Amino acid sequence: MKKFFGDLKRDLKFKNVGPGHVVTEEARKPTEIKAKAPEKPRRPAEESQMAAAAALSRLEIKQQKGRPTSGRRNDAKNELTDPAVTSEVQTINNQGPNSSQKEDRSSFSVDAVYFICPLTNASVSKCAREVHIKEAILMKFADDPIQASIMMIHTFNKDKEKIKTACETLGRYIDNICNNPNEEKYRKIKLQNKVFQERISELEGTHEFLQSIGFERKKIHVAGQENEEDFYVLNEDFLTRYEELRQYKDDLLNAEPVTAQLDRRVKIFRPSAQAAKFELPNDFYNLTAEEIKREQLMRSETVERTTMLRTKAMRERDEQRELKKYNYTLLRVRFPDGYILQATFYAREKVLALREFVHGVLENDCAPFDLVGPGGRKLKDDSVMLAEVGLVPAALLTLTWDAEVLLDLQAAGHSFTGTIKQELLSNVQTL
Questions:
Q1: Which residues of the chain are under the pLDDT cut of 70?
Q2: Are 110 and 330 in contact (CB under 8 A)?
Q3: Under a CB-based contact definition with an 8 Å cutoff, are residues 286 and 126 in contact?
Q4: Which distant-in-sequence residues (6+ apart) come within 8 Å of 428 by Cβ?
Q5: Phi, psi values for residue 401, rounded to 5°
Q6: Residue 335's pLDDT is what?
């Protein structure tokens, strides 16, 4: 046993003394070498993260087929630390929507993205759209408080599930009144009721709706309680207007939020060599805070994606991400006579929407034509989105008349001149 412990001590001693010693030598005190603690990774500043995004974006474009993976990674790392990139991104950040610096819009192809309010028919900029719609709904209370309150419920509140629950609960209140005309209890709604507080009270427009259909707020003594409680009580004048109440319920349940329609901002330009030059405002590029986070996450995955084999499903998912980068696009269509048509579209609109729009500006709206995109590719599939065929955030297309139809017209002795409507040509501008 003594020998066993002696051997065990020698083994431990041998392991501790390090290389170059024998177990019978006197153990030398090993030289202490303090290992340098690994540097803790620092969280990059916001500017650096944006610089990373810009660098990786350029890296995707510059990638060459067959280039080693390590080379791509090194390029990415070099660009992430390039001060010029950080400076570039800082400049972009300073020009963002939260900056006090205002854009000089005089040189832009279009000064902003505009929308048409369905209530006022006014054209308002993207940044003023929500405020304008809210003001228009509030102004409608003077003429039609019931419809205005319904619009308010569906437009001012953003949680669709809560809106649905509130509308269904309000509908049940009305059903109970109409189905039980002699039951006084159904004509009263206790404001402190748990269901009312959780489903109704917190949503904008619900109180206005109840008041507009005949409910009045009153304090009523409740049996067994010392203090009076707040109630909504249906006015007696509405007790015989059950059909109207049912109609209000249907209007409430079937309503949609008030949304502004995209204003195409149609312009006609004289023939110009500047047709392919675009200067766009921030409206075409700005992302919400959530979209910025998503964009940064996508960029951080870019290098990793380029170093791995991807399935078809993975490629399709990445393509869908790319489609979400832009919400709008500015398109120009050059006609055979040189005139240029310009309009704003949603990036996710179909090619069919563009084709129908062009038909709508022609004197002969049945005239057949082809649209040729950048690079000479004809747009043949009307079901694809504009973003899917690369027409974002701006593009110049060329319109050509259908050659076969022109030959048929000539053979029949007819002449064809595809012209833009005169009312548009009367406002022609110079690029």
A1: 1-106, 286-310, 312-324, 414-418
A2: yes
A3: no
A4: 268, 269, 270, 339
A5: -75, 150
A6: 93
